[in-house]
Amino acid sequence: MSSTMASYLKSTNFVRGKVVISHVRWASRGEVAYRNTHPFVRELFGREWGFAHNGTLTRDLPNPRFYEPIGETDSEKAFCLILDRLRELGRGASIHERVKCIEDAANEFAGYGGFNFLMSDGEHLYAFWSGYSSLYYAIRVPPHIGVVKLLDEDFEVDLSGLKAEDE
What's the pLDDT tens digit per position in 17-39? Predict the structure, then answer.
């Protein structure tokens, strides 16, 4: 499989950010296509928000009012619904109000099936574990040893050169 994004990632030496979300998709809902690829990204209040979900929602979610899914995944639809709720909350909402809004939506959607996710506005990282899957987080602290390689793709990332947490 090839794409512009994959070509870019292979050609660059690194991707740097305060918050980085990556996801390897099982593809239980929606075809294997770029439009269904996590993390999903949308703009809200002048910031890019990213979202990656693990699990399968077995009940249909309502249609979002403002944010439209591009693909066919339950994950993207849930993300759009959460963003709708944050938008209704308003730009001036405190971090505590945003966390409560996200938590309320997450608890509701967790009632529809597996709903673990990571979500970020580039400044804050929000994580939710619904109880789906025994592996719900892993911490990697530099210095890293070796290379991370995807088994089903010709893609690898050498982390051994990263020595500090801000690299």
Answer: 777 777 666 666 667 777 878 78
